[in-house]
């Protein structure tokens, strides 16, 4: 995938008038302060603080902080602890959180053991934040909280993986005849009958309407998303109590993305090409507007999961050219590692858009911590859609999936982080 260099200060637009320039500079300083969090705040000699999560509200000085209780919160994470910065710790005692064979809901694209993966190392890691410990995942607390409620994941196959992981983490508390999993077009619904609770997944890889919206047949080479179309899918999201959005991979069609201005039914379609970053920004803003109009911040919570990193090029981590995640069973140990498949410029767009909004949305910044996990992908150990050719069989790396993740595995940790932010924001 092509890379665009991250936005640098010198590439910021310059305004001719000095005062405007000063304002731009000031805005930029605040944006940087926001991105680099604590380090930068120390430079100011005083600690600015966020409450709940960096994106739940705006800055204010410590004395004036009002710690408003967020819906579902029962405690809080230690002051100043960024749960997304930390390290992976081998843990054969408490991991995995469930067995692959005990969870019938994992789709065959993610059951790595069943498809012959020889090692289980990838199942035995837990995430240790630098500043605090993660609370233990409490399935009964989660289920009690969902009583009479709807939780929904909206996005692409990576969000589907996280949805399935959550169902796997919870379903053992529910007797066989009191749960079901059903699919209706784009919507998949897990129901816990005695709880009158649902956990749902809605396929919308761009969040906006697109030509890749068919829940089954969506592998389209020439992807087009439609501007201003979030309600096309959003009408099915109304009434949800806990929402988890993601979108990223499908926008990566090169340096530009095709955007439809009219309707998909128009005979002469009006399509413009804009930079991936601008297209992505447009979708993020649509999402926030939808949240603002449809979710009650006093009763509901909204999460956004950042880009899931791929491991398609082993040269990124100093491996042999031509390799990828295939046959990788260890973690990348360079703390600064950031693969070429993940665009920093898109992360910057997320930071920009979220820092400017008052819409309360909790950011699950899983990108960096997942980027160390070249070992955790499904690789060749998954159901293949098409029979493999002899050429593929002699070169397994050629058909390894270095995008999706085995379950149990990495995405269970994403749910532990979601659990933490939901109950201990
Ligand atoms: C899990 O949550 C339930 C509340 O639903 C609580 O009674 C129980 O003590 C919790 N378990 C642990 C280990 O914290
Ligand atoms: C079940 O939950 C839905 C919300 O998902 C709610 O509208 C309905 O009233 C609940 N039914 C009962 C019997 O509690
Ligand atoms: C897999 O990696 C091991 C070393 O980690 C190496 O010895 C082996 O040859 C590799 N196998 C393949 C098929 O690349
Ligand atoms: C997410 O975390 C990474 C490092 O852990 C950081 O570089 C990045 O700026 C964060 N993204 C946002 C939008 O805060």
Notes on the protein architecture:
This protein is an alpha/beta fold. Helix content is 25%, strand content 16%. The chain has ten helices and 14 strands. The protein has helices at 18-35, 37-43, 139-145, 157-170, 230-234, 276-294, 344-356, 367-371, 390-394, 410-423; strands spanning 86-90, 125-129, 150-155, 179-184, 187-192, 197-203, 224-226, 242-246, 256-260, 271-275, 301-305, 362-364, 377-379, 401-405. A seven-stranded mixed sheet has the order 4-5-6-3-8-11-12, with helices on one face. A three-stranded mixed sheet has the order 7-9-10. Strands 1-2 form a two-stranded antiparallel sheet. Helix 4 packs across helix 10. It starts with 17 loop residues before the first helix and ends with a helix. Bound molecules: 2-acetamido-2-deoxy-beta-D-glucopyranose (4 copies). One 2-acetamido-2-deoxy-beta-D-glucopyranose binds next to loops.
Descriptors:
425 residues, 10 helices, 16% strand, three-stranded mixed sheet, alpha/beta, disordered N terminus, binds 2-acetamido-2-deoxy-beta-D-glucopyranose
What general outline do the C-alpha atoms trace?
Answer: globular
**SSE string, helix = H, strand = E?**
HHEEHEHEEEEHEEEHEHEHEHEH
What is the number of helical segments per DSSP (H or I, 4+ residues)? 10
Beta-strand residue percentage = 15-25%
Strand order of the largest sheet: 4-5-6-3-8-11-12
What count of structural domains? Answer: 1
Mean pLDDT: 88
Computed CA radius of gyration, to the nearest angstrom: 22 Å
Distance between the termini: 35 Å
User: What is the tally of beta strands?
Assistant: 14
Ions and ligands: 2-acetamido-2-deoxy-beta-D-glucopyranose
Helix share of residues? 25-40%
Q: Pick out the low-confidence regions.
A: 1-18, 28-65
Q: What does the main sheet amount to?
A: 7 strands, mixed
Class of secondary structure makeup: alpha/beta
